[in-house]
Structure formats: structure tokens, C-alpha cells
Amino acid sequence: MEIYKAKAEVHKLIKQCKEEAYHACKQYLNRYVRLERTNGAVHEGYIVHVDADYVYLHLPQQQTRYFNPYYPGYGNYFYNSTVLPLVLFDLLAITLLL
């Protein structure tokens, strides 16, 4: 029993938006961008890869300090390197940042 089926026009529009987002992301590969998703979430980082379904965004490194129990009063620093996969049809806006 089929519970939901998108209308043909909706499917066509989603496919078109996905293709446009794919080509825009390909054009700005290795560039620093801001991506806005349909749910309002915003991510900034470098586009490191794009495939047919996802764009992979490398988030800027953040220096993080954590408590070191062996040296009280001192913290060690480490860098966080994260690549975030985002679904292409979920993108609302792509902004090139300088």
C-alpha cells in the first residue's frame, strides 16, 4: 500500500535543483563558502568533494582545549578536522566567502 508519492512536477523540480546545486558546488570546489540548508542551518567551510548526491564541506579547524589530569592547571590543545556531508537537494543557498 502506497502511503505517499510526490507529484511528477515536484520530482522534476527537486531533480533540477539538485543538478543546479551540484554544478554550483563543482564550480567552487576548494573554495570557502557558506551553505544554507532548507531547515535554516548554516555551515561555513571549504567544498572538498561533490558527488551525485552529496557535497562534502571541510569545516574550519578549531583549536580546542581539554583538561589534562596529569598536569593540573594546564590543558593540552588539539585541532579538530571535520568533513561534513550535506545532501545536495537540501541546499537552499550557496555563498562564496572571501
Jot down its keywords.
1 helix, SH3 type barrels, alpha+beta, five-stranded antiparallel beta sheet
Layout of strands and helices, then pairs:
Layout (H helix, E strand, L loop, with lengths): L7 H20 L4 E6 L4 E9 L3 E14 L7 E13 L3 E6 L2
Antiparallel strand pairs: 1-2, 1-5, 2-3, 3-4
Describe the structure.
By secondary structure, the chain is an alpha+beta fold. It has one domain: SH3 type barrels. 20% of the residues lie in helices and 49% in strands. It has one helix and five strands, in the order H-E-E-E-E-E. Strands 4-3-2-1-5 form a five-stranded antiparallel sheet. Strand 3 and strand 4 form a beta hairpin. The longest helix has 20 residues, at 8-27.
**Rounded mean pLDDT score:** 84
- Under CATH at level 1, the class stands as Mainly Beta
Shape: elongated
Largest beta-sheet characterization: 5 strands, antiparallel
- In terms of structural class, how would the helical and strand content be classed? alpha+beta
- The N- and C-terminal alpha carbons lie at a distance of 51 Å
Extended strand count: 5
Q: What string, H for helix and E for strand, traces the elements in order? A: HEEEEE
Percent of residues in β-strands: over 45%
Weakly predicted, low-confidence segments: none
In the CATH scheme, what's the topology name? SH3 type barrels
What value does the Rg take, in angstroms?
19 Å
What is the count of helical runs? Answer: 1
CATH architecture level-2 label = Roll
Please give the domain count: 1
The percent of residues in helical segments reads 10-25%
Strand order of the largest sheet: 4-3-2-1-5
